[in-house]
Write a structure and sequence with these properties.
Blueprint lengths: L6 H4 L4 E2 L1 H7 L2 H13 L5 H17 L4 E5 L11 E3 L1 E5 L2 E4 L3 H5 E2 L19 E5 L5 E4 L2 E10 L9 H20 L8 E15 H5 L2 H6 L24 H16 L4 E6 L5 E6 L2 E2 H21 L2 E4 L12 E10 L12 H20 L1 H6 L22 E2 L2 H12 L2 E2 L5 E2 L23 E3 L4 E7 L5 H23 L4 H16 L11 H10 L7 H4 L6 H9 L5 H54 L5 H29 L5 H29 L10 H5 L3
Parallel strand pairs: 2-9, 16-19
Antiparallel strand pairs: 1-8, 2-3, 4-5, 6-7, 7-9, 8-9, 10-12, 10-13, 10-14, 10-15, 11-12, 15-20, 17-18, 19-20
Helix pairs in contact: 3-4, 6-14, 9-10, 11-14, 11-15, 13-15, 19-20, 19-21, 20-21
Bound molecules: adenosine-5'-diphosphate and magnesium ion.
Adenosine-5'-diphosphate binds next to β10, β12 and β15.
Length: 695
Amino acid sequence: MSTTMKLPELFGSLVFNEETMKERLSSASYGAWKKCVTEGTSLDISTANEIAEAMKQWAVEKGATHYTHWFQPMTGVTAEKHDSFISPVGGGKIIMEFSGKELVRGEPDASSFPSGGLRATFEARGYTAWDPTSFAFIKEGSLCIPTVFCSYSGHALDKKTPLLRSMDEVSRQAIRILRLFGDTETKRVTAQVGPEQEYFLIDKADYAKREDLRMTGRTLFGAKPPRGQELEDHYFGAIRPRVAAYMKDLDETLWALGVLSKTKHNEVAPCQHEMAPIFSDANTACDHNQLAMEMMKKVADKHGLVCLLHEKPFAGVNGSGKHDNWSLGTDTGKNLFKPGSTPSQNAQFLLFLAAFVKGVDDYQDFLRTTVASAGNDHRLGAQEAPPAVISIFLGDELNAVVESIIKGTEFKDAGKRTLEIGVDVLPAIRQDNTDRNRTSPMAFTGNKFEFRMLGSSQSISGPNIALNTIMAEELNQFADELEKSTDFQADLQKLIKKTFTEHQRIIFNGNGYDDAWIAEAEKRGLCNLKSTADALPAYIAPKNMDLFVKHGIYTKEEIQARYEIHVENYTTVLTIEANTMVDMIKHDILPAVSGYATDLCERADSKSACGVACKYEKETAAQVAQLTDELMEACSKLESGLAAIPADAEAAMQYSHDVIVADMAAARTIADKLETLTASEYWPFPVYSDMLFYV
Ligand code: ADP
Ligand code: MG
């Protein structure tokens, strides 16, 4: 990365962005692209050809030799298949070519991606189609074209298509509401997202020696080190030079790719850090978060580091999550979740707030499933991330407003009178950091909601599809009702009051980590879907399926397919983890501890032959030998458990959760005890204090 470039020049230098299009396209083609993006019209082939030619020329000038349709299959990561621009012209020569057809549509023979049964093998090929709302960019010598990925029967096989559908739908429904408030200007409402990304950095040499990290992304063994995060000295602490150099390089890499990387700091656990970009539309935010995760890993490699994106790389210290900051903005520059300064703006704000509160209450189970994964099971409800129960935090001021609306009681701050929606002004709602409730899964933070349950490795697409669709549904219901009204003010007031009253149970402003809350939540009838195995069935609950089908976000088959992929993924992840454990126990730990115990015995023999005390050797050897046998047995149990995983996918998920997780925990406890007894030179891989406190 060129460090001589000034930041404004560097930013977006590898992106075929709007400014570049304006410069390099005829005004007719630029206009056609713009119309396609803002109004959803399609591009004709001559325009596509011109855009492709301009893109290729630009990319070749920047040193690109290949192009790829860059897409997001249901694996959760991105996929790419590179084709070079070369085209033979005879005489052993080539020219660089790229047509509109190649830009707009590609056909990767992508039959090995998970499809959840959406593609029969005889029509295994999927096709990719350019998403003109997301800019093309250059990565490692390839022009990357953000695309959607569908099967020939038209089913979405990716995470982008439904996201785009949900963004359109929430826009359509929000505009109906805005029209009721007399807004005639807004043409588009955009779901806006700023995802904060947590990660760990460890030394590459340590990583290389740990099979668990290489196979599963997390440590499956490791005794608690003498020091973890107790000193609370890492959070926002001074950044070590080696990490600072990494962060600088990462920033520059992301800026060149047009990612608005803004904030970087140390997180709670040792070696844990965070990057947050400035928010953008949900589609771009999702693309950019995928790129950021990829670059975090690639840049780390250059610095002799490894970036771990797993939700729980180390037991005993915090794991990593992702905060999904979400709001709705108009193309006229307004944020629909910003409390206004006039009575009418306030009424509109309260209606959008009511829709959100109702939506989260109605679909709390689905929101929970969008963050369900084997990795995230280690965090949710473990006192380091929100509990598995969904609730909304509104903050003191807004909560007082909602309560006064529900009770029709006096609103203290507003001068001893009841708050009349549409007539009265709201009191100032603070946007103060200190007022933040960090234990809430869904916190209102002044002008947006922060969904805090996401796992660090997951795509943000799923949760945002859910938020957009849920919001679209509630706005749709409200619009249906209010469009018929003959007394808008009165009916609006009634609707807001009714909604807050019926859905107040989802609002909780206290400490989400407190056990008392879990008991209280149960009394309120809120879902507590503790694990992935508990949560996933909600994916295909009839009311949830109906929601997505009604709004055209997923077909029944598409949602069923996603459910199946998640269910299978859970068992697959656990199987890999358990197999890795077995491997490490048999190949590394048992031989090492057996050797250690034998050496201790030999030393004890020599010592007693000389008449010297050898209590230490004997007792340690006895303990090690005892635990060695226990570990061998725990390992056999794990192996027989693995052999007995049922064939049926749902049964396998439940079984993995009930049996494999418990057997792994049992084996780990013994191995970790052995680690504390075994001399360092015998222990076969780096331990927590090596990995978490490297220099
Ligand atoms: P913090 O949560 O640490 O106080 P900020 O409030 O600055 O930090 O924002 C965190 C993330 O939320 C950033 O990615 C930011 O760009 C994003 N964000 C800010 N405003 C909005 C908004 N209206 N809609 C969506 N995301 C937003
Ligand atoms: Mg935050």
